[in-house]
Amino acid sequence: MYRAPRGTSDILPQEQAYWRYVESRAVSLGELYGYQRIDTPTFEDVGLFSRSIGEGTDIVEKEMYTFEDKGGNRLTLRAEGTAPVCRAYLEHGMHNLPQPVKLYYVAPIFRYERPQAGRYREHYQFGCEALGDGSPALDAEVIDLAWQLFISLGLANLALKLNSIGCQKCRPQYLDTLKNYYAGYAGELCRDCKSRLKRNPLRLLDCKQPQCQAAADSAPKSSDYLCPECAGHFSQLKGYLERLKLPFEVSHRLVRGLDYYTRTVFEIQPESAGAQSTIGGGGRYDDLIGELGGRPTPAIGFATGLERIILNLKEQGIAVPPLAGPTVFVAYIGDAARDEAVALAAGMRRAGIGVIGAAGDKSLKAQLRQANSLGAGYAVIIGDEEIAAGTVVLRDMTTSAQETVPLNELEGRLKSASG
Ligand code: HAM
Q1: Mutate which of 78, 109, 306 to test ligand 1's pocket (most atoms within 8 Å of Cβ)?
Q2: Which residues contact 307 (CB under 8 A, 6 or more apart)?
Q3: To test ligand 1's pocket by mutation, which of 57, 58, 64, 80 has the most ligand atoms within 8 angstroms of CB?
Q4: Ligand 1 pocket, residue 102 CB under 6 Å
Q5: Which atom of ligand 1 is least distant from the CA of 301?
Q6: d(CA 346, CA 355)
Q7: CA–CA separation, 249 vs 160, rounded Å?
Q8: N or C: which end of the chain has fewer CB within 10 A?
Q9: What is the pTM of this model?
Q10: Residue 270 in contact with ligand 1 by CB distance below 6 A
């Protein structure tokens, strides 16, 4: 027997109410903030991801699904959503449009991670990217959008963590300071951190290993090493967030797992759990479009994992609206009625009434049980007697009340009942 590959899941019908609800909320909120939908291919040139996310990151080193197709092209399944959007922005000349260009997506993301609760090898992200504007007001808008999404879904006890990691001008000095600081702790660090110290020192700050906590907690803060431009940007952003009454906390250990960020980085985390369960994150990436061959173009965005939102909704006991079931189940007794039921069901569907037809030769009791489990509001029952009289039996599945209805009144009755 085959099973779904490790780290992937089937989203079964009983889960769909959560998925539709979360996705439709995200999409309508994105549109409320002026974002337009973009869909990019499921795979891209490997270089797009390795260049954008960064060679020294876990994603590029260990997690990408990269393969060679039959034409010898090296391709990677979408490892994140930002780089493909930047590629599309450049490829379609969107820098010629009024800026910023605001785009959102809902798409599966593929990362070869160690599966656990809330961490999968295929997950879905809703993400927003605002390209072509560097002002801190746009950072505030993106952070506000992310925060409002979770709040409007009813989630509580969330923390909004914020940091600024500077730019090409001021970060080198900070990284040197960080390396010097950590050199004093080299013997105590975990194995990953020892290698990060050489390749990606910022990532030392978000290590989860117990032996690295003390060093990370008292490490030099990037916000103390910002150049005047970055410092001004960060302070304006904080001013906007205060004005919007967003309850942010500056966290000097927040650095994110992708290398393209500049200045603003932020994450939204459930207060009770660790960073493992971050439900959304993003930041500014002012150099990325330039690195991909475009003119220097500031940009900011964020993304959230739909599975993690749903996990949190369930953990917090938040119910979602049920999906509308079919209106009518057509049941029959006997062979002649089965033939009649085919035409009856087709006629009702053409009239716009949602119908599930019974199948096989189950007893009436079994058919009604099926109608019940499918959530039908009504059952229409026909047998030889009804065919002869030109009627049907209409059963209200909630009250079990039954009545005989002339065939020519059935559609009207069902429409007025559902309307
Ligand atoms: P990210 O932090 O790697 O950022 O992923 C964004 C969100 O996707 C996370 O906060 C989490 O909710 C969810 N997520 C990530 N990995 C998994 C996983 N293995 N299983 C389940 N959920 C997961 C990015 O991808 C950036 N592109 C975000 C961004 C957009 N930055 C700027 N614009």
Answers
A1: 109
A2: 118, 120, 123, 124
A3: 80
A4: no
A5: 33
A6: 8
A7: 6
A8: N
A9: 0.94
A10: no
Amino acid 275: pLDDT: 46
CA-83 nearest atom, ligand 1: 27
- Residue 58 near ligand 1, beta carbon < 6 Å: no
How many CB atoms neighbour CB 95 within 10 A?
Answer: 15
Would you mind telling me the total number of residues written for the chain in this entry? 419
Q: What is the mean pLDDT of residues 97-117?
A: 97
Sign for the CA dihedral angle at 377, 370, 14, 23 comes to negative
Which strands, in side-by-side order, build the sheet including 158-164?
A: 36-37, 101-110, 122-131, 299-305, 280-284, 262-270, 158-164, 248-250
User: pLDDT, tens digit, for every residue of 295-304?
Assistant: 999 999 999 9
Pairing of the two strands 122-131 and 36-37: unpaired
Looking at ligand 1, which residue's alpha carbon is closest to its atom 20?
Answer: 119
Question: DSSP string of 75-142?
Answer: EEE---SHHHHHHHHHHTTGGGSSSPEEEEEEEEEE-----BTTB-SEEEEEEEEEES---HHHHHHH
